[in-house]
Design brief:
Helix content is about 45%, strand content about 15%. It has about 110 residues and is α/β, with parallel strands linked by helices. The protein has a single domain (about 1-105), classed as Barnase, Chain D (2-Layer Sandwich), CATH 3.30.370.10. The protein has a three-stranded parallel β-sheet with strand order 1-2-3, with helices on one face. The protein is globular, with a radius of gyration of 13 Å.
């Protein structure tokens, strides 16, 4: 499980800062949603070097977003992008014959 304090997210820059810190994204992380999707697509591949968080093959990571309701109100576009991109990570994996690996949980 990885917990994200969405109270620290006020814009795109802070979104990427918070997620990069929580997941240990590499220094070359592009700080956009395409790069976010790429990093989270390889949580079960330690050799990819895209994150320091590891998920065993076939397992699922719970991504808990604290203060989700305030985040949704404050940054609706980023909130929607988070949902859409997490779904895309899972779709991409299923399309490649792999198991989905991200589960979102929202806490108020």
């Amino acid at each position: 499980m990885v917990r994200i304090d969405a109270g620290k997210i006020v814009d795109s820059d802070s979104f990427h800062t918070v997620f990069a810190a929580a997941f240990g994204f590499p220094a070359f992380y592009g700080r956009n949603m395409n790069a976010w999707t790429d990093c989270l697509s390889d949580l079960d591949d330690p050799g990819a070097g895209m994150t320091t968080v590891r998920v065993p093959p076939g397992e699922c990571l719970s991504l808990v977003i604290d203060q989700a309701q305030d985040f949704k109100r404050r940054c609706p576009e980023l909130f929607s992008a988070l949902i859409e991109c997490a779904a895309f990570v899972n779709w991409r994996r299923v399309d490649m014959g792999r198991s989905p690996m991200l589960a979102l949980a929202f806490r108020t």
